[in-house]
């Protein structure tokens, strides 16, 4: 440690001899957490308008007894202004399961952030993670944000899943809209892991804002658009549905994701005794009963069946064959719960309870946290697989109670936080449906 501090001191001294530290805008901002590669790690990402040359996180259970050095990325926005901002990424290591940590980030010479606290996840599969899920939340009209913030500060969640479409858009106004958004979510994202997947609103400059502003598991050295992580009894998989639509950035990415999915799902299935649930999240749904002519309204959606005519790379079959339990989607600015479905056919568990040992995955669309594009409407007559739908602003709460029971509820912001939908999914056996 003493050696590290000496090196920091030397680096800072040299820097301050050449530039005036006091004239720089180097206060850490937009601070957010995300899960690391395993339960002993937690990533911290933050931003500074000017460079600091060093990026540190000090943390510990009782005071700042541990320190890690991160890296600073010079991120140049692809717009006409070519605005430069500095993104700092560090991974806290040697975390104890279930322990409450204090941390701050920044630099001993350039300044530290305020202090934040988080509780590290348990490694154990025998606990009940509580998660808030939503998509499509912007700077303007972020209807769910105040309630989500209050929930988070009251300790109601272990993690947040933002299922694509941030800020509207992060690249707008040379990236200042992205800066504002990351500041808006900091009260939540600095105390809970803020887990993400890319949406269509992140498309500009080959998803550069998404890739630079977030750091997801397995992404310490790269810009991955898909990843997985374990949390209690769940194996979560985050996918990019955008590969199907923005092929100008390389169709190979779609196939690379598909090959990765095969191996990740195979490994997850071997581990189902320990982590029985497999839950996926991606931005654009395979099914929906909205009236906006999006991909999910089509008979053969791209995400569901893959590349037209050759039908390669579709997600429905591989998720069905590998026994995915629940798929979360967003993109539609509404909420929709589906009956268990495969290939457009309903496979309910029983006549009295569709969600008791269902014979196909359950889809949930939760894209109504609020943005400047407001709501998406529905077709008048729901499809046979549509169990419940609402265009109220809101978000989803999930508790994975144990190996057999998973509880979901939908919060309506339009109705003052009322629960407008509930589901208890019971699976006494997990695995392939085919
Ligand atoms: Fe979208």
TrEMBL record:
Query: Annotated Gene Ontology MF terms?
Result: acid phosphatase activity
Entry's EC annotation: 3.1.3.2
> What Gene3D superfamilies does the database record attribute to this sequence?
3.60.21.10, Purple acid phosphatase-like, N-terminal
| The Purple acid phosphatase C-terminal domain, residue ranges | 360-421
Q: Which residues form the Purple acid phosphatase N-terminal domain?
A: 28-119
Record key words, sorted: Glycoprotein, Hydrolase, Signal
List the InterPro entries.
Calcineurin-like_PHP (IPR004843), Metallo-depent_PP-like (IPR029052), MPP_PAP (IPR041792), PAPs_C (IPR025733), PAPs_N (IPR015914), Purple_acid_Pase-like_N (IPR008963)
Q: Is this entry keyworded Cytoplasm?
A: no
Q: Which residues form the Calcineurin-like phosphoesterase domain?
A: 130-335
User: Which positions make up the signal peptide?
Assistant: 1-23
Q: Which SUPFAM superfamilies match?
A: Metallo-dependent phosphatases, Purple acid phosphatase, N-terminal domain
Recorded catalytic reaction(s): these are: a phosphate monoester + H2O = an alcohol + phosphate
Known PANTHER family for this protein?
Answer: ACID PHOSPHATASE TYPE 7, PURPLE ACID PHOSPHATASE
Q: Name the protein family.
A: Belongs to the metallophosphoesterase superfamily. Purple acid phosphatase family.
Q: What is this protein called?
A: Purple acid phosphatase
């Amino acid at each position: 440690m003493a050696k590290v501090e000496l090196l920091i001191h030397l680096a800072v001294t040299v820097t301050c001899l050449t530039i005036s530290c006091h004239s720089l805008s180097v206060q850490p901002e937009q601070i957010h957490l995300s899960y690391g590669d395993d339960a002993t790690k937690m990533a911290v990402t933050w931003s500074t308008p000017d460079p600091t040359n060093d990026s540190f996180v000090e943390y510990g259970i009782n005071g700042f007894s541990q320190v890690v050095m991160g890296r600073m990325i010079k991120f140049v926005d692809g717009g006409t202004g070519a605005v430069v901002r500095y993104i700092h990424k560090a991974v806290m290591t040697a975390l104890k399961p279930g322990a409450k940590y204090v941390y701050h980030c920044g630099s001993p010479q350039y300044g530290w952030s305020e202090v934040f606290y988080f509780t590290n996840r348990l490694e154990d599969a025998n606990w009940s993670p509580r998660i808030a899920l939503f998509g499509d939340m912007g700077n303007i009209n972020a209807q769910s944000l105040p309630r989500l913030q209050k929930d988070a500060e009251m300790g109601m969640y272990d993690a947040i899943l933002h299922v694509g479409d941030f800020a509207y858009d992060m690249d707008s106004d040379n990236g200042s809209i992205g800066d504002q958004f990351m500041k808006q979510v900091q009260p939540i994202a600095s105390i809970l892991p803020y887990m993400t997947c890319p949406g269509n609103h992140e498309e500009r400059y080959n998803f550069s804002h998404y890739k630079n502003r977030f750091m997801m598991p397995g992404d310490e050295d790269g810009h991955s658009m898909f990843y997985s992580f374990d949390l209690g009894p769940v194996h979560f998989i985050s996918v990019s549905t955008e590969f199907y639509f923005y092929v100008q950035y390389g169709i190979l990415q779609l196939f690379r994701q598909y090959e990765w999915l095969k191996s990740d799902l195979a490994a997850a299935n071997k581990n189902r005794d320990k982590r029985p649930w497999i839950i996926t999240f991606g931005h654009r749904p395979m099914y929906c009963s909205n009236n906006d002519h999006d991909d999910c309204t089509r008979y053969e959606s791209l995400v569901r069946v893959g590349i037209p005519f050759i039908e390669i790379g579709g997600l429905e079959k591989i998720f069905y064959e590998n026994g995915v339990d629940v798929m979360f989607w967003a993109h539609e600015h509404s909420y929709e719960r589906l009956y268990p479905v495969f290939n457009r056919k309903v496979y309910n568990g029983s006549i009295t309870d569709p969600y008791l040992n269902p014979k196909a995955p359950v889809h949930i669309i939760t894209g109504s946290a609020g943005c400047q594009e407001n709501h998406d409407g529905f077709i008048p007559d729901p499809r046979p697989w549509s169990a419940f739908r609402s265009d109220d602003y809101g978000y989803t709460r999930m508790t994975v109670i144990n190996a057999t029971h998973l509880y979901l509820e939908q919060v309506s912001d339009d109705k003052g936080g009322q629960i407008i939908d509930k589901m208890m999914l019971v699976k006494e056996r997990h695995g392939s449906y085919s």
